[in-house]
Amino acid sequence: MSDKPRNAAAPALKISRASSDYLDRVVDLDARITGQPKPDYWQDIFERYASRHVEERFFLVAESAERAGDRILGLIVGEVRGWEFGSDPCGWIFAVSVDPDHRQMGIAEALFQSMCDEFRKIGIAKVRTMVQRQNPLHMSFFRSEGMVAGPFIQLEMSLDE
Amino acid sequence: MQTASRLAIYALIELAANPDRQISAADIGEKYRVSAHHLAKVFITLGRAGLVQSVRGVGGGYTFTGVAKRLTLLDIISLFEDTSNTCRLGDPSKATEEEWALFEVTKEINDLSLATYGSITLATLLKQIERRKTRAEREKDAAAAS
User: Fold this and answer.
1) All domains of chain B, ordered by start, with CATH?
2) Distance, CA of A118 to chain centre
3) CA A93 to CA A128: how far, in whole Å?
4) Per DSSP, what are the bridge partners of residue A78?
5) Nearest CB partner across the interface for A136, out of B118, B123, B131
6) Mind listing the pLDDT tens digit for each residue in B1-59?
7) Interface A-B: count of C-beta contacts within 8 A
8) ipTM score here?
9) In chain A, positions 62-121, which contact chain B (CB-CB < 8 Å)?
């Protein structure tokens, strides 16, 4: 993967696959966003998405190219899925986070595009995600990247009625 | 979506895509096949909302004064029509189960529409237009080559 300079305000980025060396910094990033450190949760995500079946599971992190080893600025996690009714395998993104102090600098876009590049390399032609429709931050971000409503619709039912 | 909302979105697309130019209502009207008179009313509302500024005189017209990366389609539509997802049952305490059932269906559709309009900014729409143009050119080139 290559360094991807963004706009003038953004640092030059180094985007790479996360290894276990990044675990503490990922926990730190998530804690800065959510206010709650979740080391066990991220340890599990690392085991599943950064060390097993890595040919179709991708855990990417963005950091400053000049200050590699410093705190990470963002992450994205995705994998190849093909479990919906009659669906061809597709790229599925289920986590995107950017350091609150480095938003609106194109970091999420760089991560998203890098993830799409990874999917393309293995022959995947569609990328999908699922977001809460009342979450304008995520909805607007994925829309701005060109994502539109797909052919599937999520349905649910309360089991306590 | 009502006609005024649609015209407002078209007008803002034109102005935001050409930030260095003043564009007249007549020019926009010609492109979208509507009267300048109809557009003038739309521009009054957009001006009051601080989204456009008019420049008088020769070469005058309108310029976009909003923030394309922040302004959503829902923001624009809300200037011209009621987008609140209100209960249309009249007095809910008197509504029948049949009325409630139909209300739930229409609310589901309405919620989805509002979320969609609320998540698409003018900047996103401009990017979508550019993608469409690129795709159309690629298809045209491919057709010409075959």
Assistant:
1) 3-145 (1.10.10.10)
2) 12
3) 6
4) A58, A93
5) B118
6) 899 999 999 999 999 999 888 999 999 999 999 998 889 999 999 999 999 999 887 77
7) 28
8) 0.76
9) none
